[in-house]
């Protein structure tokens, strides 16, 4: 591809056909991830201004059917609740303007019950701790305007413990910096309006060093590039107002090269098979950089800015759109 | 999906592959349906059989997190009406099962968490053996962060001295200077081993000597440079200002020499610029020139380098 063309129609088609992929083994072994998958697909359609292509009522019904008695949402019917799928459920309902159909108190109780004395969050009752879960919890509560229900200072303290020698963040205190976890930590601090407490230039430099000569971004030093980091790295840079520290034209070309010309969809690397996860994050990257007149995506909430603007209680200090 | 190459095949071959795929799906569905039927019949009255029946699904799909949860529910249930020794045997068997899974699926968050959960149920976990398992996996993939994370978990619960792990990072780094995970581990151990500021300072100064070999051997590799940057930054608050500046000046010498040997490499130039900015006695023209040269060597990051102009 030399003309940098974004195959919008093909990507829309790719996403709406995802549920018809029942002849792929992959479809069955990722069944437990359907809530995340639905959020990735729906949000990709939002970026492409095609959310009406999705069966709204059927999707809402299915999402609501995954709420468990404890208030959390499972990844699919017949699976267990988890913060990862609970955030996706809230994000889907919000984009369909259907939060009024949600048992909000039950969700809030669920999330609050998972905070630990050190400020961290369990992902579910089994007790795994990860900064990804902190982000899910804080994002859910802030979207539902219930942040006052948790100890926010303790959250910030815990995130501080996950900061590393390079300025980045990992899953746990002592865990190596990773662009994904750096996004969740910066996102959490942004939502709590505590970004001014961190050393922006050190982490900004580490993030911009993720760009490789091929234009793509990696998630850790000395690793290869991958389209999903177009989101984890770029959103973090955007939240701290350092998007211009990388070469955006080169990254755009890299993402465009990862498109599947035949089927639509975007892959992790050029010539690989596409999937919904990389399709969404590739589009997110392009949207953040302002190419192709895509719907603008907020770098902290990973939701369309226009959807977030309807929530009057949010203060998106990092978002100029 | 990561790293799955799209392959072009003939129509005939494609048909063949499709049939195979459908068979695979059929088999997977048979397994999951069988387990779900079993599960609905037992109605939360668990037995050892529950552990056997659920194994096969996880062997085929380790990401099926609800079944890892199920296994823990079964064990919690059995704990209430089984002898202590019987339970210990079950936990040991579970460790064996996880070990088989972990070697096939080395990057599953769910499996690694399950191992942590079970290991704490054992009366006496053989932590040295656990460390060896990690070392074996890290020999195959030196950057597996789940594995590194499990090492830290072992250190926390075993009482194995941190200095032993520190020596392990030395070994891993000397094998491969690009092992960023090992550099990271080293940085996080240092501040835990040397809690006295004066002790830490003298160790960090030793480290500056040690890292020099790495930057000279692999000047294009950022791992050791990031570590170098961290060493000087960590020294700043724990030594006197005059000593701090002397340390930086003595670092500048060998790095400047390296710049001459590697004129196309941005790293020594970048790190020396940061050192000069910290020392603060260098003419503005010279610093601006350095920034221009950095932009020439690494044009993608032009805006980052320009931002350094404000620090002059
Ligand atoms: Zn990826």
UniProtKB/TrEMBL annotation, chain A:
Zinc recorded as keyword: yes
Domain Prenyltransferase alpha-alpha toroid: 6-302
Name listed for the protein in its UniProt record: Geranylgeranyl transferase type-2 subunit beta
GO cellular component, one term: Rab-protein geranylgeranyltransferase complex
Classification via InterPro entries: PGGT1B-like, Prenyltrans, Ptb1, Terpenoid_cyclase/PrenylTrfase
CDD domains in UniProt: GGTase-II
Catalytic activity of the protein: geranylgeranyl diphosphate + L-cysteinyl-[protein] = S-geranylgeranyl-L-cysteinyl-[protein] + diphosphate
Required co-factors: Zn(2+)
Family: Belongs to the protein prenyltransferase subunit beta family.
General function of this protein: Catalyzes the transfer of a geranylgeranyl moiety from geranylgeranyl diphosphate to both cysteines of proteins with the C-terminal sequence -XXCC, -XCXC and -CCXX.
Keyword Repeat: yes
Cofactor note text: Binds 1 zinc ion per subunit.
Chain segments annotated as transmembrane: none
GO terms assigned for molecular function: metal ion binding; Rab geranylgeranyltransferase activity
Keyword set, alphabetical order: Metal-binding, Prenyltransferase, Repeat, Transferase, Zinc
Superkingdom, natural source: Eukaryota
Entry EC no(s): 2.5.1.60
Lineage: Eukaryota, Amoebozoa, Evosea, Eumycetozoa, Dictyostelia
TrEMBL record, chain B:
InterPro entries listed in its UniProt record: Prenyl_trans_a
Protein's UniProt keywords contain Nuclease: no
GO terms of biological process kind: prenylation
Any one of the GO CC terms: Rab-protein geranylgeranyltransferase complex
Pfam families: PPTA (PF01239)
Entry's Gene Ontology molecular function annotations: Rab geranylgeranyltransferase activity
Domain of life of the native organism: Eukaryota
Enzyme nomenclature, EC number: 2.5.1.60
UniProt keyword annotation of Zinc-finger present: no
Reactions catalysed: geranylgeranyl diphosphate + L-cysteinyl-[protein] = S-geranylgeranyl-L-cysteinyl-[protein] + diphosphate
Keywords: Prenyltransferase, Repeat, Transferase
Protein family per UniProt: Belongs to the protein prenyltransferase subunit alpha family.
Job description of the protein: Catalyzes the transfer of a geranyl-geranyl moiety from geranyl-geranyl pyrophosphate to cysteines occuring in specific C-terminal amino acid sequences.
Protein name: Geranylgeranyl transferase type-2 subunit alpha
